[in-house]
# Entry
Amino acid sequence: MLATLNEVMKIAEEKKIAIGSFNTPGLEALQAVIEAAEELELPVIIQFAQCHEPWIPLSVIGPIMVAAAKEAKVPVCVHLDHGETLEYLQQALTMGFTGIMYDGSVLSYEENLKNTKKAVEMAAKTGASVEAELGSMGRRESGSGDDSGAEDETKIYTDPDQAASFVSDTGIDALACSFGTTHGIYLTEPKLDFDVVKNVRAKTSGIPVVMHGGSGVSGEDYKLAIEAGVRKVNYFTYMDKSGGNAVAEYLKTLEDKEPVFFSSISMAARDAMKENVKSAMKMFANR
# Structure
């Protein structure tokens, strides 16, 4: 069933868990996430990032995501991840997305504030919820296979006092905070500052905090992050990687000169991603 970001965040808050938010820039990923959520009977967020446009256009996959959410047996929010322009946000809202993230983290605070306010006004017209980002997780979320887990001097931790003003002035529904995570594959163990999350929550009357760069974080750190107030975890890189690994293993089973069929490869990837998503969702739900 189609749900807004606000609605699934309320479930997370009531149960003191985090909702998994998975990028689905393809049918295999979309099937994997919806099926995993239904089997575990957990709400879920399916999302599409603007930087994934070269893989498949939002205009193609977006309506499919909305249709799949409506048919699902569990609450599903259809969310735009890292929307960089107001025009792109409007495209998602027009096709029925129930959550949008405006990412103005690379802009000045004043510009980010101004555009986020506009995003909130736009979303209000359709009943959608809004996530915004304050601070910076470093390199942009550009997909798989990059070195974004490397030490990145562009990371800027979220200032809780600034967050309080930002949330009050914009009226957003969730805030992506920078507290030590990074997009992509971690090359070194992340050092997370949970006090940032706790202080943001304390100073904003408990706004749901969003954790970007969730892939590769330890189970213990997930537990501490959720206890601190994280209610949405963005997770994609390791899910995507699990699909790639499954394809590589499948190819090893083929006899010499045996034909390779894309349908077989896609099913291997889908099934592996589903199991990876289920494991992640169990961690986020403290199961």
Remarks:
- The longest helix spans residues 262-284.
